[in-house]
Amino acid sequence: MKSNFKESYKHLGTVKANSKKEIIFEGNGILPEIKLMTASCACTKPVRKGNNIKVVFRPGGFPKHLIGASEYMTQKNVVIYYKDGSQEILKFKALISKL
Fold first, then answer.
1. Is 1 domain-assigned?
2. Which of 21, 44, 29 is closest to 90 using CA atoms?
């Protein structure tokens, strides 16, 4: 299946812990009707904006097992379920930093 988006993967670079980052996945044209969107984490909220998907990513504090680290890498995804029964995954990766 051909992607409905110009990019389905984004590397955000460094994102500060406890901040807010908005990501736009730009559509190739008119998106099919969406039945449901699910995110891999509660820190990730997808919203359809016209022919794009805007994802708001809010990394919280550091996980307890990483308290001594100054940064860590994370990857999240959003699964889009279309009304025609097909689905698509959008992914992003970020280096979460305390600084």
1. no
2. 44
- Residue 5: CB atoms within 10 A of its CB come to 19
User: What's the predicted TM-score (pTM) here?
Assistant: 0.92
Q: DSSP string covering 32-67, please?
A: PPEEEEEESSTTEEEEEETTEEEEEE---S--GGGT
Q: How far apart are CA 50 and CA 59, in angstroms?
A: 26
Q: Is residue 51 part of a domain?
A: yes
Can you give the pLDDT of all 99 residues of the chain as single tens digits? Answer: 789 999 999 999 999 999 999 999 999 999 999 999 999 999 999 999 999 999 999 999 888 898 889 999 999 999 999 999 999 999 999 999 997
